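thread: overnight batch results

M.L. [08:02]
morning all. the overnight job finished for the chain we discussed friday. pasting input first so we're all looking at the same thing
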Amino acid sequence: QVQLVESGGGLVQAGGSLGLSCTASGIIFSGNIMGWYRQAPGKQRELVASITSGHSTTYADSVKGRFTISRDNAENTVYLQMNSLKPEDTAVYYCRWTLFTKDYWGQGTQVTVSS
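M.L. [08:03]
and the structure it wrote out:
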């Protein structure tokens, strides 16, 4: 079992920055992928960014150049630095941990960007 605890998020004006973090605890195996997803009201949950334990990254086109994902394997923590935020970035952001058939989600944290 893996537990994910997210922190960060909140309210920010357009053009501002926010940082999210997510720490995994429990039975942690190496080789996992950690990522951030988001879900806006009335929309499907979508990938924002993901990072492997080898630090290979994937980004949604909508956030490339503005968001940066990173991780600290020793601390089992993944970070998402969000810059140049736009109102369309408003959503609940979820942390995800995956390894083969194991798939765990955090509880979500709200990010609201005002125009």
